[in-house]
Amino acid sequence: MTKTAKKPGGESSPARNGPKFSLWNFWVSATLLKLLLIPGYYSTDFDVHRNWLAITNKLPLKEWYFEDTSMWTLDYPPFFAFFEWILSLFVPKFVRKDGCLDIVKVGDFGLPTVIFQRGTVIFSEILLFAVLQIYINKSSLSERSANFVVASSIVLSPGFLIIDHIHFQYNGFLFSILIAAILAAKHQRYLFCGFFFATALCFKHIFLYLAPSFFAFLLRVYVLNFSNFKFKSYYDLISIVQWKNLFKLGGVVLAVFTVSFAPFISQWPQVVTRLFPFSRGLTHAYWAPNFWAIYTLLDKILTLLFLKVPYVHRLLTQIIAPPLIPATIEEIKWKLQQYNVGTKGLVQDVYFVILPQIQPKLTFLLTLFYQILAVIPVLFSPSFKRFVGSLTLCGFASFLFGWHVHEKAIMLVIIPFSFLVISDRRLLTPFRLVVSAGYVSLFPLLHGSADFLLKLLYTLVWSIIYFLALRQVTKMSSSVRRRVFFFDRFALFYIIMLLPMVIGVQMLDALKWRYEILQKYEFAGLMIYSIYCSIGTLSSWVGLSWLYNFDEPLWE
Amino acid sequence: MTAVKKVSKKSFFASPLYDFLSPFRPVGNQYYAEYVIVIFALVIRCAVGLGSFSGESTGPIRGDFEAQRHWMEITTSIPVSQWYWYDLQYWGLDYPPLTAYHSYFFGKLGSLLDPHWFALGTSRGLETPDLKSYMRFTVILSEVALYIPGVIYFTKWFGIKRKQSPIGTYIAAAAILFQPSLILIDHGHFQYNSVMLGLTVYAINNLLDGFYGPAAMCFVLSICFKQMALYYSPIFFAYLLSKSLFSPSFNIPRFISVALSTVIAFSVLFAPLYVFGGVKNVLQSVHRIFPFARGIFEDKVANFWCVSNVFFKYAENFTQAELQKFSMYATAAGFIPSFTVMFFYPKKHLLPFTLGACSMAFFLFSFQVHEKSILVPLLPITLLYCSSDWNVLSMVSWINNVALFTLWPLLKKDGLSLQYGVMMILSNWLIGNFSFCTPRFLPRFLTPGPSVSDVSESYRRRSLLPNSILWKLIIVASYVAMAIIHVLDMFVEAPQRLPDLWVLMNCGLGFSCFGLFWLWNNYKLLTMRNTSFADF
């Protein structure tokens, strides 16, 4: 009938141009979805950021880090405070009236404030889209489609959706600076790399965990030059340092830090105590899925075992000397009473009954140890891939062994890993493990029933799309060594079982009122989450470390 | 045939939906496309569900949410014989029995989770967050079970018949599943229209496959869920009768199977009412279902009676009985054309057209119409997104926007303005209606373009507007009028004497657009009656 209506235009040219790989459509659709999330749940982090808006707007700069009317004191580095200050300049009058900028103990605000603050998150996230669009545009034609998959997987990440747009934070914006640094490293713009990473650090100091890798990489590729190096005496070591580059890089980084911290130089100790509060416990209220979750579980199992089967304890005391484990059953009981552990998941500090207590120093050393292991190969042979690998492993080390780790920190692993995974198909298994376990471990952040289906379905559809897309764009293995298929199958099984785990825990939660045993173990659901997810993150780390350390052709 | 194939691929060519789904074109990936669009459709429904529902934290009577919850409360707690009698002043059950069984099922299920939600008497006006989540969940579950598979089957059937690429059918399915009005009413305002509509789609699917008995049964189920499905009944009647009488001659087994399945479905559905309460109970339910004692229209609705009531006050000049008679005549006159076409030309591809024209006639002229009833004509009309005719697609997209616009006063009252705006933009943007205004002022590296599909960067998709200049003018003018009414509604206080002026203007515009569309639809039927499927 009216077939002439269609314009036959688009058919001829695409073969010439190829797709443009624009993130525009993704931005529009994602933004529309995020707008729908405005009336939904938000966590206390919302009031935290509102309070910071108020502090930076109402108080002179020198009081920012001293103000403590609300318990949500400013504990981000100065750039973030400046960022909040700039945002606060745009608060319209009706939002002001709503109580958005009041310095009070507990925020008293309504929908206008919510709309404004959610709007700032959505708006600031544009930077993420822009940076990733540059990443796509700058990539060579052969790898453009793969890079597009990576970029779109990051902008649509359920992690950002859950943490930023429901829970409330500004990670999308903050990570875009980190991604800019990675991007600069990829294109050998090392000064920019240093600049962006320093900036990112001054926005959110959690990026400090990635600092060893950046430091080693920049040092090796930009500052040191081994090309004409011949060792004759120690004086020759001086000649490998490219002093000009060192001063340029140092100047850039120091300039960033100066701009950031100089206004607060007189209150240095106060800023430091705010930024690094070591008074917190080993694990967060809900254990992040890391090594310590398994450690804690082991302690609980051993306690139970020793109490129920005293013989095991007697046997063990023969092998292990008493100070390391409690000498008698009475001591265990006494400790139990003392710490009042059991099922109270909300204690600020976790004590262990059987296993040795964990000191902050130990977690710090462990983290550092694994980070150094990750960094050493970069010093030997600084390729971009190896650098991103070391970034990922640094993120892993801090996440798995750090002190008071938040589940949100998994993004520090997932984002660098995303840039890595397209280079080899064998990396796909550890990547799938860490994204699925990592994103699922974010679910307890949204504990209301209203978001349950949303977070589950969104993560599910993201996984379907990107597991499929990444498999298609990743290169076949560069190494001749065969993959261990058993491991792949097992990982797939683990990932699929996440679904019944999530639904099961939700059902447990819904039926809690009915059975007393469920009330007694109120936090069993959260424990299941962190234990199950920590298996995924740990195995992903093991898998990646193996490839990183022992599979040489992959990283060139 | 190749020409058809080429064109049908292009129905939504270069729209964002096309762009999103084009990575699924390789055969190995097609399998996933279905899941991806369904899950995204569900995600959007969940997100809309975060908003408020009708009557959330208002007054003692509240709204549809409370009505549905209350029905779960009474069906699970009191005997069947009392269902249609219990405290009629407070949301007495006034839907057919399948709604009651549906409420019973979800009430029982919910009581397993928390018995307080549906406890008799004490649960009135309960609005805990968990209850809200559960109720939202039941709507989603009902839709997943009925409406979504029905729509997908329908689009696949049309796609295969027209030798469309699988992705083309999925794009059509996505366009239908992202229809904003149904999402906002079911998941925002709170109702279970998707059950009724889903059952109707099943009936249509059965007709397409030539299963006449099951089709009749599905349609009866649909009527027995919500009496509004009666808007379709003349067409189903005409089609089934015609297929039984002249196919090519009187087909007795088919006739008997249709008649029997209709009777059996009705009797099975009403049997519990009869068994537990006798004839009186059945009559009471029928009396409750058809409330002729109420006015000729309810609230403000974009149909003939409400709009012409501005100029001529019916209630003052005629008795209720007279008005009923008038509306009956008008409705009959309205659906006779589509009925006749369906009876004499029982062709499968005409089904959505006739269903649309017939139910639109009911919406415009029948008695006691709600603004939400527009969803009934909207269903067959939206199914026409399967078409490859640019004019049809344009009209469908236009009428979807008009329908959404007429729901604005209701959604505004429910506090769903944000969801309304977002869904309006989203649904239009997805099918490519905003391609004309993609920003070109952005820096070069950010300039919008297709993300994955092979559409060239400079290609600009035409907005969905018909080819005829007259229709173009009408449609653009209606959009401008909508914008003006929205602006007035938002920024200008209505005059003292006419506090409902903006709403009335909304209804007036809606009625004119629906009327025009209905005329077009009938004209289309007239011209299409002799076409075959291949021409469609």
UniProtKB/TrEMBL annotation, chain A:
<feature type="transmembrane region" description="Helical">
    <location>
        <begin position="427"/>
        <end position="446"/>
    </location>
</feature>
<feature type="transmembrane region" description="Helical">
    <location>
        <begin position="173"/>
        <end position="200"/>
    </location>
</feature>
<feature type="transmembrane region" description="Helical">
    <location>
        <begin position="115"/>
        <end position="136"/>
    </location>
</feature>
<feature type="transmembrane region" description="Helical">
    <location>
        <begin position="76"/>
        <end position="95"/>
    </location>
</feature>
<keyword id="KW-1133">Transmembrane helix</keyword>
<feature type="transmembrane region" description="Helical">
    <location>
        <begin position="452"/>
        <end position="469"/>
    </location>
</feature>
<keyword id="KW-0472">Membrane</keyword>
<dbReference type="InterPro" id="IPR004856">
    <property type="entry name" value="Glyco_trans_ALG6/ALG8"/>
</dbReference>
<comment type="similarity">
    <text>Belongs to the ALG6/ALG8 glucosyltransferase family.</text>
</comment>
<dbReference type="GO" id="GO:0005789">
    <property type="term" value="C:endoplasmic reticulum membrane"/>
</dbReference>
<comment type="pathway">
    <text>Protein modification; protein glycosylation.</text>
</comment>
<feature type="transmembrane region" description="Helical">
    <location>
        <begin position="286"/>
        <end position="307"/>
    </location>
</feature>
<keyword id="KW-0328">Glycosyltransferase</keyword>
<keyword id="KW-0812">Transmembrane</keyword>
<dbReference type="GO" id="GO:0042283">
    <property type="term" value="F:dolichyl pyrophosphate Glc1Man9GlcNAc2 alpha-1,3-glucosyltransferase activity"/>
</dbReference>
<feature type="transmembrane region" description="Helical">
    <location>
        <begin position="528"/>
        <end position="548"/>
    </location>
</feature>
<feature type="transmembrane region" description="Helical">
    <location>
        <begin position="490"/>
        <end position="508"/>
    </location>
</feature>
<keyword id="KW-0256">Endoplasmic reticulum</keyword>
<feature type="transmembrane region" description="Helical">
    <location>
        <begin position="148"/>
        <end position="166"/>
    </location>
</feature>
<keyword id="KW-0808">Transferase</keyword>
<feature type="transmembrane region" description="Helical">
    <location>
        <begin position="246"/>
        <end position="266"/>
    </location>
</feature>
<feature type="transmembrane region" description="Helical">
    <location>
        <begin position="362"/>
        <end position="381"/>
    </location>
</feature>
UniProtKB/TrEMBL annotation, chain B:
<feature type="transmembrane region" description="Helical">
    <location>
        <begin position="326"/>
        <end position="345"/>
    </location>
</feature>
<feature type="transmembrane region" description="Helical">
    <location>
        <begin position="134"/>
        <end position="155"/>
    </location>
</feature>
<keyword id="KW-1133">Transmembrane helix</keyword>
<comment type="similarity">
    <text>Belongs to the ALG6/ALG8 glucosyltransferase family.</text>
</comment>
<keyword id="KW-0808">Transferase</keyword>
<feature type="transmembrane region" description="Helical">
    <location>
        <begin position="351"/>
        <end position="369"/>
    </location>
</feature>
<dbReference type="GO" id="GO:0042281">
    <property type="term" value="F:dolichyl pyrophosphate Man9GlcNAc2 alpha-1,3-glucosyltransferase activity"/>
</dbReference>
<keyword id="KW-0472">Membrane</keyword>
<protein>
    <recommendedName>
        <fullName>Alpha-1,3-glucosyltransferase</fullName>
        <ecNumber>2.4.1.-</ecNumber>
    </recommendedName>
</protein>
<feature type="transmembrane region" description="Helical">
    <location>
        <begin position="167"/>
        <end position="185"/>
    </location>
</feature>
<feature type="transmembrane region" description="Helical">
    <location>
        <begin position="191"/>
        <end position="208"/>
    </location>
</feature>
<keyword id="KW-0256">Endoplasmic reticulum</keyword>
<feature type="transmembrane region" description="Helical">
    <location>
        <begin position="469"/>
        <end position="489"/>
    </location>
</feature>
<dbReference type="Pfam" id="PF03155">
    <property type="entry name" value="Alg6_Alg8"/>
</dbReference>
<dbReference type="GO" id="GO:0005789">
    <property type="term" value="C:endoplasmic reticulum membrane"/>
</dbReference>
<dbReference type="InterPro" id="IPR004856">
    <property type="entry name" value="Glyco_trans_ALG6/ALG8"/>
</dbReference>
<feature type="transmembrane region" description="Helical">
    <location>
        <begin position="501"/>
        <end position="520"/>
    </location>
</feature>
<feature type="transmembrane region" description="Helical">
    <location>
        <begin position="417"/>
        <end position="436"/>
    </location>
</feature>
<dbReference type="GO" id="GO:0018279">
    <property type="term" value="P:protein N-linked glycosylation via asparagine"/>
</dbReference>
<keyword id="KW-0328">Glycosyltransferase</keyword>
<dbReference type="GO" id="GO:0009060">
    <property type="term" value="P:aerobic respiration"/>
</dbReference>
<comment type="pathway">
    <text>Protein modification; protein glycosylation.</text>
</comment>
